[in-house]
Amino acid sequence: MTQTMVESRPGTATAQAPAGEGQARSREAVLRVFRGDASGGSEVEYRVPVAPGMVVLDAIHWIQAHRAPDLAVRWNCKAAKCGSCSAEVNGKPSLMCKTRLDHFAQDRTISVRPMKTFPIIKDLVTDVSWNYEVNKRIPPFKPRPGADWRWQQSDVDRVQEFRKCIECFLCQDVCHVLRTHELKHQFAGPRFFVRIAGLEMHPMDGEDRSGFLKDHAGIGLCNITKCCTEVCPESITITDNAIIPLKERVVDWFYDPLRMVWRKLTGR
Amino acid sequence: MNPHSDRSWAGGAGTLAAPSASPGALPGLPSTGVPAGSFRGRGFGERLGATEREDAWWAQPLAQAIGLGLLGLYATWAAFQGNHYEFGNYLSPFYSPLFKPSWWPISPAILILWAPLGFRATCYYYRKAYYRAFFGDPAACAVGEIKSKGYCGELKFPFVLQNLHRYFMYLALVILVILWYDVIRSFAFAQPNGGFRIGIGGGTLALLFNTTLLSLYTFSCHSLRHLVGGKLDCFSCVAAGGPRLKAWSAVSVLNGHHMGFAWWSLFSVCFADLYVRLCSMGVIHDGVIYLSSLFDTAGGTGL
Q1: With a threshold of 0.90, does the pTM exceed it?
Q2: What interface predicted TM-score (ipTM) does this complex get?
Q3: Mean pLDDT, residues A122-148 taken together
Q4: With an 8 Å Cβ cutoff, are B233 and A203 in contact?
Q5: What mean pLDDT is predicted for residues A70-98?
Q6: What stretch(es) of chain A map to CATH 3.10.20.30?
Q7: Of A185, A204, A226, which is closest to B128 when you measure between CB atoms?
């Protein structure tokens, strides 16, 4: 649905719906939006007219169009599929395009801030390029030698869950290992454990990334607090289906004494 | 069977060495290839409780801390009592299997409880719960922490021992068999003439309910999920792939409720002990329905 927003006069903005959708609504949302860059900044308050079905990204666009044309925000699809509009709404890592304004109490201010884990560029835009650097280091898919390229749907069901990832990096943002402890030099983060799980569990993949997971991706730094799963907009069960199974595979190789002895004795 | 035997490793295929760390690892660079601090955000080193969240984020860790704290205190107290753990054909789950060697000076529960305690302490769900509730690491998502420097996750002692969870799971499976034996025994009530009658008492129900929940908790374990089939990459490519897929799928369904089973079984095990204890102390009277009496119009229910 398309809404046209117009400003009646400074300070008393109203929303105007397309013809046939009724009169302008009286409700206004109050947004406090972070404005600034790496050198500093502060929250600026904007009053935005609310239309039915409006999401936070709509409100940000309204502010861009009517109050602050220099407000920086990254977005593309507005359909929760591109993963671009990640931010922190009332302190919770969220996609702005998937966060409806009518989920908030009318009398409460809505704060919109950039993701805290990554360096800020301007306003709501952060530099997420660290993620792409990590991604380059993951051992890629390597076909199993002599593999028969036929498999059952049941073999790839769990891998398909991981393919839903839209790389919004909200899981990276909320992960305390990256966010609070700033261990980006030792830890790949949940997004890349999802990617590695998708490669590791692929029926035709012949690579073993257990050593990479332990020594370079730093999976032992994860303490299973499941915040990544809580914020995933694609509802990927990151911790239970990706990280814990990978931890168990690392245990197979590096922490299970009986398996290690068995391997020494039998060579298997 | 080595789950990786048909795979090459990132370095050194066909050797007995563990998989190498990375094919692209360059000397002198940190493990992710990014120098420390080069992509630092504003969340670094936030103090405890610092957050922009406006909801009651503290409620869940507080409830978990209270729940785990109270149940943990009760279990510790009950384990160290060393008495009132038996009543007729009922045996408290804290004391099962019952070993009472003459040389052991304190409660026999201490000889047993370390195994189920280890199973719960290293459980993937409880780890989340107590890291949040007691360590504040983090207390809640997107909230500042107690300790911001020197974090090492589960890489160093004692937390590296979390990797032994599967061994505690093996022990829990053995104890589970014994607990089911206790449940069966709780149906057999000794009679004054030396015989037994089959019946259902309050303790029977408490032990049955508890052991059922403990079974659900154990069979929803993440490590069990891995061992029954999760470690495989291709179910249709291995021997007995079909049964292993079914086993993995069944454990996966249970695993989705692991948190619920963890809490309910913790309540039930404390309740079962409390019931046996109160019966033994004479505080409550255990009601029994003898199954043979159900068909005997002249007889009572035994209640």
Answers
A1: no
A2: 0.87
A3: 93
A4: yes
A5: 97
A6: 6-126
A7: A226
